[in-house]
Design a protein that fits this description.
CATH class of the largest domain: Mainly Beta
Shape: elongated
Strand content: 35-45%
Number of helices: 2
Distance between the termini: 97 Å
Radius of gyration: 33 Å
Largest sheet: 6 strands, antiparallel
Length: 428
């Protein structure tokens, strides 16, 4: 036998051995799976993957969570579904008693599909197991407090996202919270709660909503009136006197506790009832120019209002109510302030960004002090705001003006109320 024949025999023998080994492995794998996966799967519980909490069990999870499904006959799991959405299964994280999966952000929740089945379903080749399981939306977000000028007993309305499974609403003060009586719409974008007693603003002025998914963040958009910083409430006399000695613009006759379709929040307010002129048209009956011509300070001073504080820490806020059947798109509230260098600083607030209903209910509008600009010029410190302006004879005055602006090409007929013009220390 020559060398070529010997090599051929060896090669053929090697191929036969390799093929036999592969067949044994294949049959062994099939046998192992058949022996282990003897019946349909069962789910005992769901827990998190923290080794320190192996005895835990829960019936809901938030998007982004990692779950350990505990049960029997789980080897060979083909798919896991949450609310009929496939999560995907990595066989490296599957044993006969455990399947580890991650709840992706695309899993449907009540926030995206109100009729979700709230189930977890695991499928292998022998059958499936289904348990009730809630997939929660993200933690709630407060985008806007409708009317920040509230007190105990008032109804507070919040606009935002993910107001589902509400547990607690926290108010300023130690142990000041509400755990029942909430109202929320089906979309989870609006909720109502009654303001409790014993508000205390010593350590803050923010509202916080806690749901099964977690707690909302606190920022300048989640605050209520902390009883500081009032400039003009149209009732209390001081550097400004009502209804006539406060500046110029609307008639003192329009400072009343009500206007057609608008009830006062707390006493009198400034009213306007007209067809607001198109294309930035002007009339004094849509102006509230708060002024003390003698130079007497009309802006808040003292603790929290230090002159050295950054202007960006302060907001100019006030409440507005509108009663109209027309669209208010294009209707703006201009906030105007003249600084000590002769610059007229201003910012136009699009009212439709804040006012959700034109039914005469009150909404809080807000502008950060640094949003008032003239080109690149803006206030740097609160002290610059306190200084006011000077005329050509060097006479100092303190002024702050609100003007309703109609940027559209058509008049907009409406009744409008303004109240509680104030400067708020929004950031400490």
């Amino acid at each position: 036998m020559n060398m070529k024949s010997i090599n051929t025999i060896k090669s053929s023998h090697s191929l036969l051995v390799a093929s036999a080994l592969l067949m044994v492995l294949f049959l062994g794998a099939c046998k192992d799976e058949d022996e282990i996966n003897v019946g349909p799967p069962t789910i005992e519980r769901v827990r998190n993957t923290d080794p320190a909490s192996t005895d835990s069990s829960f019936t809901y999870a938030t998007l982004g969570s990692t779950l350990a499904i505990i049960g029997n006959n789980l080897l060979g799991t083909q798919q896991v579904y949450l609310n009929d959405y496939p999560l995907g299964v990595n066989t490296a994280y599957v044993t006969n008693n455990t399947v580890i999966v991650t709840v992706g952000d695309s899993v449907p929740t009540v926030a995206t599909s109100p009729d979700v089945p709230n189930t977890l379903r695991l499928v292998n080749k022998s059958g499936e197991a289904v348990i009730e399981f809630q997939t929660l939306p993200p933690a709630p977000q407060i985008i806007q407090v409708k009317n920040q000028y509230v007190s105990a007993g008032d109804e507070l309305t919040l606009f935002g996202r993910y107001f589902f499974f509400i547990d607690t609403v926290y108010f300023p003060g130690e142990n000041v919270y509400v755990t029942s009586g909430f109202e929320a719409n089906a979309a989870g974008s609006m909720m109502k709660v009654k303001v409790p007693e014993n508000l205390d603003f010593s350590n803050g002025q923010a509202i916080r909503v806690v749901t099964k998914s977690g707690g909302s963040a606190t920022n300048r958009n989640t605050q209520i009136y902390a009883e500081k910083g009032m400039v003009a409430d149209f009732d209390t006399n001081g550097a400004l006197e009502w209804p006539w000695n406060w500046g110029w613009g609307i008639s003192g006759d329009m400072i009343q506790p009500s206007q057609p379709g608008i009830a006062g929040l707390d006493g009198n307010f400034g009213g306007m009832n007209q067809a607001f002129p198109a294309s930035y048209g002007w009339n004094n009956d849509k102006v509230i120019n708060l002024t003390n011509y003698s130079g007497t300070q009309i802006f808040p001073e003292g603790e929290g209002y230090e002159p050295s504080a950054p202007a960006g820490s302060f907001d100019i806020r006030f409440e507005v109510a509108i009663n109209t059947t027309q669209s208010i798109e294009g209707l703006e509230m201009q906030v105007w302030y003249p600084d000590s260098q002769g610059n007229e600083l201003s910012y136009n607030i699009p009212m439709s960004n804040f006012i959700k209903a034109t039914d005469g209910s009150w909404h809080t509008l807000s502008a950060n002090m640094t949003q008032l600009t003239n080109g690149s010029t803006r206030l740097a410190t609160y002290g610059q705001f306190l200084e006011g302006s000077y005329d050509d004879k060097g006479v100092n005055t303190k002024q702050l003006r609100l003007v309703v602006v109609n940027s559209t090409s058509n008049d907009i007929k409406a009744v409008l109320g303004v109240d509680n013009i104030r400067v708020v220390r929004a950031v400490q």
